[in-house]
Amino acid sequence: MQGWAGRDVVSILDFSREDLEVLFEETDRIRRLVAEKGRLRLLEGWIVALAFFEPSTRTRLSFEAAAKRMGAETLGFGAVEASSIAKGESLGDTVRMLDSYADIIVLRHRFEGAALYAAEVAGHPVINAGDGKQHHPTQAMLDLYTVRTLFGAIDGLSYAVVGDLRYGRAASSFILGLSLYRPAMVYLVSPPSLRVREEVRMVLDEKGVKYVEIERLEDVLGEVDVLYVTRIQRERFPDPREYEKVKGSYRVTLKMLEKHARKGLRVLHPLPRVDELDNEIDASPYQAYFLQASLGVPVRMALLGLVAGVLKQ
Amino acid sequence: MSDDGLLVRRIREGTVIDHIPAGRALTVLRILGITGREGYKVAVVMNVESHKLGKKDIVKIEGRMLSPSEVNKIALVAPSATINIVRDYKVVEKQKVSLPDRIDDILSCPNPTCITRQPREHLVSRFRVLSRRPVRLQCIYCGTILDEDDVMRQLMEG
């Protein structure tokens, strides 16, 4: 196991399950501390740069909340300001500037590989908050932590990941995250055009993860413990008629769950949702996505603390 | 070294890249970054008979010893090639090329939203070698996988 201090967070695959166990234990501890004290001072005097070149609500605000609850200060910009800040400036130059202002850089960018490139350029740790369609490692960390919180383990469960598995970085990162564990089965549920990318499938094959690519969720719902739903993006379909054909089959309703789901099944969703998750599920025992969203802050607090080297290793 | 002696004389000092698949000598030179403007004497022999390959190409570079690490990336298009280092008209070192673990700069990532494709960043492409035969490469930035056809198409047509 590599130490956490000073480390870049580019892909979930940069971490071992032992690394993640350290993160999860620290998250447990942070949650207890926050319950007692509210705000911590572990990162007092630190500056965290939040550089969001792409729109984000949840991730950006949860990083900001996490940094502030740890006692750090934040600076940065969102997508709207980014366009005027950049003004023809290269990402490399923007990152060099942030590197001289801040102690940790959190970056979201629309191009794949932006975070790795930023990590090469910056001396301070870079945390990837989403690079194009590729990685969203901190989302995967909080998703795995949510599963661990709900079920007490990540191994041995059956998962169905539904929706846009090709372009959705949250789905890809969750699937890659599962490859670090020993899930009983991973059902990859999507229309053929939105199946996981070759490089993701390659990792699953290499790690010997049991998985099946299927099109119909109902066929496997009875076998599944964790149902991870993501949005199917209409704009990805070259032919709108194709989208119309498949969209209904990926809309998860309470009726569908009551008819097919195994008892104890929990629904996760990285949010925001559009219409793929029926609101009726919100009040049902299946719903776990609000807990998942709320865990984003303590997981990112622990992550910032570990990367800063102020928490135990 | 077969019958190419009829076409090009032997070199005194330098590097001979032999057993290049027929028709790929110019691609090999391009991969090596040899344009002819460097001032070395360069001989390119194409489509000569070969026991091993039927037909082959040969490249001779007078006055420059290429190190294996410089030359190994030509294994992308010429996995059968051998590198001969010549001193005083004698081959003093002979080596088969073998693809290194990393290929930097000579290929372009086919994914248009890869950070390496953004002209403003002036970033060099970098690929890890997943498999040598057949050639499979992966962009270290965006994860995109290139198979042998993609690589050949880029290098032969590029």
Describe the fold and architecture.
The complex is a heterodimer of chains A (313) and B (158). Chain A folds into 2 domains: 12-135 and 295-308, Aspartate/ornithine carbamoyltransferase (Rossmann fold, 3-Layer(aba) Sandwich); 138-293, Rossmann fold. Chain A contains 11 helices and 9 strands. Chain A has helices at residues 17-37, 58-69, 79-86, 91-101, 114-121, 137-151, 169-178, 198-206, 240-247, 254-260, 289-308; strands spanning 47-52, 73-77, 104-109, 126-131, 158-162, 185-189, 211-214, 226-229, 266-268. In chain A, helix 1 (17-37) packs across helix 11 (289-308), helix 6 crosses helix 7 and helix 6 (137-151) crosses helix 11 (289-308). Chain A is globular and about 55 Å long. With 158 residues, chain B is mostly beta strands. In chain B, 14% of the residues lie in helices and 35% in strands. Chain B has 3 helices and 9 strands. A 5-stranded antiparallel sheet of chain B has the order 2-3-1-4-5, with helices on one face. In chain B, a hairpin with a 3-residue loop joins strand 2 and strand 3 (54-62).
Task: Quickly list its features.
heterodimer, A: Rossmann fold, Rossmann fold, 5-stranded parallel β-sheet, 4-stranded parallel β-sheet, 11 helices, 41% helix, B: 158 residues, mainly beta, Alpha-Beta Plaits, SH3 type barrels, 5-stranded antiparallel β-sheet, 4-stranded antiparallel β-sheet, 3 helices, 14% helix, elongated
Quick gist of this model?
The complex is a heterodimer of chains A (313) and B (158). Chain A is of the alpha/beta class and 313 residues long.
Task: Indicate the topology.
The complex is a heterodimer of chains A (313) and B (158).
Chain A: H1 17-37, E1 47-52, H2 58-69, E2 73-77, H3 79-86, H4 91-101, E3 104-109, H5 114-121, E4 126-131, H6 137-151, E5 158-162, H7 169-178, E6 185-189, H8 198-206, E7 211-214, E8 226-229, H9 240-247, H10 254-260, E9 266-268, H11 289-308
Parallel strand pairs in A: 1-2, 1-3, 3-4, 5-6, 5-8, 6-7, 8-9
Helix pairs in contact in A: 1-11, 2-11, 4-5, 6-7, 6-11
Chain B: E1 14-21, H1 25-32, E2 41-50, E3 54-62, H2 68-71, E4 82-87, E5 90-96, E6 102-104, E7 126-131, E8 136-139, E9 145-147, H3 148-157
Antiparallel strand pairs in B: 1-3, 1-4, 2-3, 4-5, 6-7, 7-8, 8-9
